[in-house]
Amino acid sequence: MIAFVNNEFIEAENASLGLTDLSIQRGYGIFDFFRTSNHIPLFLDNYLDRFFNSASLLRLQVPHSREDLKQIITEMISRNKIADSAFRLILTGGYSPDYYEVSSPNFFILQQPVQLPDKKKFDQGIKIILHEYMRDFPQVKSTNYLVGVYLQHKVQQHKADDVLYFKDGNILEFPRSNVFAVTKEGTVITPAENVLQGITRMKVLEVARKLYAVEERAITVDELKNAVEVFLTSTTKRIIPVLAVDNVKVGDGKPGEITTSLYNAFLEMEKINL
Amino acid sequence: MIAFVNNEFIEAENASLGLTDLSIQRGYGIFDFFRTSNHIPLFLDNYLDRFFNSASLLRLQVPHSREDLKQIITEMISRNKIADSAFRLILTGGYSPDYYEVSSPNFFILQQPVQLPDKKKFDQGIKIILHEYMRDFPQVKSTNYLVGVYLQHKVQQHKADDVLYFKDGNILEFPRSNVFAVTKEGTVITPAENVLQGITRMKVLEVARKLYAVEERAITVDELKNAVEVFLTSTTKRIIPVLAVDNVKVGDGKPGEITTSLYNAFLEMEKINL
Fold first, then answer.
1. Which residues of B touch A20 (CB under 8 A)?
2. How near does any CA of chain B get to the CA of A64, in Å?
3. pLDDT (0 to 100) of residue B274
4. What is the phi-psi region of residue B22: left when phi exceeds 0, alpha when psi lies from -120 to 50, beta otherwise?
5. What residues of A are in contact with residue B148 (Cβ under 8 Å)?
6. Alpha carbon of B98: minimum distance to chain A alpha carbons (Å)
7. What is the pLDDT of residues B151-201, one digit of tens each?
8. Cross-strand bridge partners of residue A91
9. A252-264 pLDDT, tens per residue?
10. Which residues pair with A152 in a beta bridge?
11. Is B48 in CB contact (< 8 Å) with chain A?
């Protein structure tokens, strides 16, 4: 497997960072994460937009142009030959002489095989728990998952599959996914602020607007618990129904009609873009 | 310079981590930081206590016993021959196959020369600004400094030297130091909760209790702004007077009497422990 580190392609197993890098020392880094289907990147421009935006918000300079990045990605696709894969672009604060000030960034790209959940996994859905927390820079895809990784223990203790953050009574996002709900009136709703602007979230909003009433707005925990359907969106999961919140069934405990129709519409949209 | 990585001593410049380490991918790591004076570690047991405590709170296993760590440190002191140095022990979430779940931790120790501020730097003091923020696990010395590193830009814009966090009207800590104040009545006060339990903070409290009334408790921003003396404590700075908060002079804008007496008492305590 070939990785790209700073300016060169190298064997992924030999790829490393020196210990003074600010991602190791101070958790200062951003990344992005997209996938390929049958060797073709999906929604690449949207992911690159977000990557450059995250970098800019944390005052890091991406050391390659968008066109260069696309060429590097194309070369990795052709050399690694993984049809269905996920690409991870990471940009760090660089080697910092004083272990604190941002320096010349380190940049690398990793590719890995990825298997998306099938229809059976969709039908099984997931159970989630809630936890009060808001990420430090919600609009930035930073490498700071201290709370998310820590909470894996709590998720497992509760025999749940994921944890949904809320803050001051409003739901926000999962550590690695966005959340949607469907109201009794059939309106598709998702939190508007203080969440990462997920690319799958954006695409699901696009297809949802053609089919249903859609609202991006604040959603209380109570509203979530009274929703008739709840689902998550993520790059590697597309859409997964949430069938229980804190052990209370959502709707009738099965994937809802609107969730299923959005899932099918999203699969169609994917095909058009591949 | 020799570093210690997992189980071996290696040249620091060759020390590295593979890119799947959770400190790089997810900012999941803890560390500690102590210094040596004339080749002798200062308050080592206190720092090791805190290191093991941080690891335990984030459910990471330190792969060496306390006695082993002391032997490794002793060997680095004898091989690197840096009289006045800082040691950095880092423990990460390890190489994670799924880039998220904690794995077998990576552990390393770095040593670097350090120069402590002299009496002139003490007399110059520092200017600080305030910023609303509380760290995610205040009692853990994690590697997450995303906000602190980001705020360096704001600190420089305001021609200040550091930034003090507050939350819900109460002051907390600097990104890398603790804060103390002296009230009009001559009581030495420092925040009790939601801050890292600094080792220098602990030692300054010890010497302060012999000389003055001391209170560990919640301190409002207003109380800070009305304090007659303010200072910070840190491993590599000992005690530094804060002479301005948000451009408003503290006391008469010079290092205060109590701050100075604590600084002298701390230097005495250091000598006894070396």
1. 110
2. 20
3. 86
4. alpha
5. 26, 100
6. 10
7. 999 999 999 999 999 999 999 999 999 999 999 999 999 999 999 999 999
8. A30, A107
9. 999 999 999 999 9
10. none
11. no
% of chain B exceeding 90 in pLDDT? 100
| B147/A153 touch (CB, cutoff 8 Å), yes or no | no
Is the per-residue pLDDT at A66 higher than 90?
yes
Strand blocks (E) in chain B: 2-5, 8-11, 16-18, 29-37, 40-41, 85-92, 107-113, 126-132, 162-167, 170-171, 178-182, 188-190, 214-216, 229-234, 238-245, 248-249
Q: What is the DSSP letter of B21?
A: B
- What is the token pair recorded at B88? 């950095």
pLDDT-based confidence at A25, cuts 50/70/90? very high
User: B15 to chain A nearest CA, in Å?
Assistant: 6
And the tokens for B105? 């931790």
* ipTM for this prediction: 0.96
Which residues, including other chains, have CB under 8 Å from residue A35's CB and lie 6 or more apart? Answer: A41, A42, A84, A85, A86, A87, A114, A116, A235, A236
**Which among A12, A101, A145 is the nearest to B26, CB-wise?**
A145
Average pLDDT score over residue span B4-31 = 97
Residue pair B179/B223 in contact by the 8 Å Cβ criterion: no
Closest residue in A to B96 (Cα) is: A149
What confidence category does residue B40 fall into, taking pLDDT thresholds of 50, 70 and 90?
very high
Compute CA A8 distance to the chain's CA centroid, rounded to the nearest angstrom.
27
> In the beta sheet, which residues pair with residue B108?
B5, B90
Q: Do A212 and A258 form a contact (C-beta atoms < 8 A)?
A: yes
Task: Please give the average per-residue pLDDT across A61-68, as a whole number.
Answer: 98
Span B79-116, pLDDT tens digits: 999 999 999 999 999 999 999 999 999 999 999 999 99
The whole-angstrom distance between residue A256's C-alpha and the CA centroid of its chain comes to 23
Task: Answer whether A28 touches B (CB < 8 Å).
Answer: yes
3 state DSSP class of B177: coil
B27 contacts A27? CB cut-off 8 A: yes
Quick one: average pLDDT of B244-260? 97
Pick from A23, A101, A102: CB nearest B23: A23
Residues of chain B with C-beta less than 8 angstroms from the C-beta of A176: 100
Q: Does B188 touch chain A if contact means CB atoms closer than 8 Å?
A: no
| Nearest residue in A to B57, CA atom | A150
Q: Hey, are the CB atoms on B152 and A92 less than 8 Å from each other?
A: no
Residue B158: per-residue pLDDT: 98
Tens of pLDDT along B111-152? 999 999 999 999 999 999 999 999 999 999 999 999 999 999
Convert A61-72 to b/e letters by CB count within 10 Å (16 or more is b): ebbbeeeebeeb
Q: Which residues of chain B from 57 to 96 reach within 8 Å of chain A, CB to CB?
A: 58-59, 88, 90, 92-93
Q: Write down the pLDDT at residue A274.
A: 85
- Which chain A residue is nearest to residue B32, measuring alpha carbons? A25
Mean pLDDT rounded to a whole number for chain B: 98
Query: How, if at all, do strands A229-234 and A214-216 pair?
Result: unpaired
Looking at CA atoms only, how far is residue A253 from chain B in angstroms? 28
